[in-house]
Design brief:
alpha/beta; 10 strands; Rossmann fold; 422 residues; binds alpha-D-glucopyranuronic acid
């Protein structure tokens, strides 16, 4: 009897502990506990990696496998039967300065296949052009207020009484400030974007409707073997498949961009798919650019509690033990090498731990050094609105968690500097 009550007590206690709320986020730098980062240049056998050859042949695949097994899960390649349908080409948009294309990417043969709608704006001159590719939060119709843009089939409604039409009208152009198309086109670049819900709706049950279910047989991955971030990343690679088929586009120079959860996604997509020439992580925070071992802002426990579908089940075993993870996020950034990488923070976005994003970018530099490239070659965090670094660049801008014109202007300048002669 005694032992029964004892085991009941233990069960109840451990149950309570495992569901306990995460402690309040720490925002006090003096309370950040000491930590040791795993060295991405130490092999499984404890050997130091000194050459690009060793990195590319053994160490890089090893680090990638650690992220696959512990954080984001598997990812697949291009499925058989993938095909595109161009549903619109309008050469009169932006006062005739740009061409808009709308393309549906079908993930398998036939018109009934699961699909994703991509919106492209390309400058008229300077073909083939470099494109910034990124997923968006609220549908392509939220990027530009133009009724010709096909609305997403997933509509955000402010209240249940709202009709679809009202929801579409309310969303049209609402994300325009995050996609400053005039500026991008004016500088000679294009954009390609799709609503991330087309790949998997962003909630706990979203996998039931998304590609983790609809493409399960074709991709040979069980739903639990990958994650929502994996599914979204996979979609970015399918956008690249389209870009490679479009002769107006220089697909060897595609720049991946993502904000916040979609910044985490851009990093994971860039790590897996080396066709992307440059990667931009905007305010990606925990599970993105920020170091998990720093107890500042969001923690692994926080993110797994609010968004259990973003990562695989194994990631939850690190909820209270980031030090047990065989990687930290600087190792993810290292997987982008030797390609140019931009990590950006915002001063008021403390939840994303700007210093943790900076330190992660800084600690990715040794892998860039193997390629004789200078990464983030500064020791101290820069002042606000002062971009620093070389092949790895970093800024912290004033303001909130967002993508602003200031951010884009830095990305465009970085692209001009590093992508021009590809
Ligand atoms: C939440 C989440 C972050 C994420 C952000 C976003 O704040 O905790 O990890 O980056 O949403 O995607 O906007």
């Amino acid at each position: 009897m005694k032992s029964y009550f004892f085991s009941l007590l233990v069960t109840t206690l451990s149950y309570t502990l495992s569901f306990a709320q995460a402690p309040p986020a720490n925002y006090d730098e003096s309370r950040v506990l000491p930590y040791t980062l795993p060295d991405p240049l130490i092999s499984r056998q404890g050997k130091k990696i000194n050459t690009v050859k060793e990195w590319e042949r053994k160490q890089r695949p090893y680090i990638l496998s650690l992220f696959t097994e512990n954080v984001y899960g598997k990812i697949s390649g291009k499925p058989a039967g993938l095909h595109f349908k161009i549903t619109e080409t309008d050469t009169t948009v932006l006062d005739g300065k740009a061409v808009r294309k709308q393309v549906t990417i079908y993930f398998s043969a036939g018109d009934e296949a699961p699909s994703m709608d991509v919106l492209l704006y390309l400058p008229k001159a300077g073909h083939p052009v470099t494109v910034f590719a990124g997923l968006n939060f609220n549908g392509n119709h939220a990027i530009v207020a133009d009724k010709a843009i096909k609305p997403s089939k997933y509509l955000k409604k402010a209240n249940p009484q709202m009709t679809d039409r009202e929801a579409i009208d309310a969303a049209r152009g609402s994300a325009a400030s995050r996609w400053p198309i005039e500026e991008i086109i004016g500088q000679g670049y294009g954009i390609a974007t799709a609503h991330y819900y087309d790949l998997e709706p962003d909630h706990k049950e979203g996998w039931k409707e998304g590609v983790r279910t609809t493409m399960k047989e074709a991709l040979h991955i069980a739903t639990g073997e990958w994650s929502a971030i994996g599914a979204w990343s996979w979609g970015l690679s399918r956008i690249q498949d389209y870009l490679e088929s479009d002769k107006d586009i220089d697909a060897k120079s595609t720049i991946l961009i993502g904000h916040s959860r979609l910044g985490k996604t851009a990093l994971w997509a860039g790590a897996n798919d080396r066709r992307f020439a440059m990667v931009i992580s905007n305010n990606s925070g925990e599970g993105g650019a920020a170091l998990s071992r720093r107890n500042f802002g969001e923690t692994i426990r926080n993110i797994n509690t609010s968004f259990p579908h973003w990562f695989i089940a194994q990631y939850k075993s690190y909820n209270d033990h980031p030090e047990k993870l065989p990687v930290d996020q600087h190792s993810l950034l290292s997987l982008i090498a030797p390609r140019p990488l931009y990590v950006a923070s915002a001063e008021e976005d403390r939840w994303a731990d700007p210093r943790g994003e900076f330190l992660s970018a800084k600690n990715a530099a040794p892998v860039y050094a193997l390629y004789k490239l200078k990464g983030l070659n500064v020791n101290e965090m820069p002042a606000v609105n002062h971009p620093v670094g070389e092949t790895i660049r970093y800024h912290i801008r004033t303001g909130k968690h967002d993508v602003t014109l200031y951010d884009w202007q830095q990305y465009l300048a970085f692209a001009r500097q590093y992508i021009k002669n590809r």
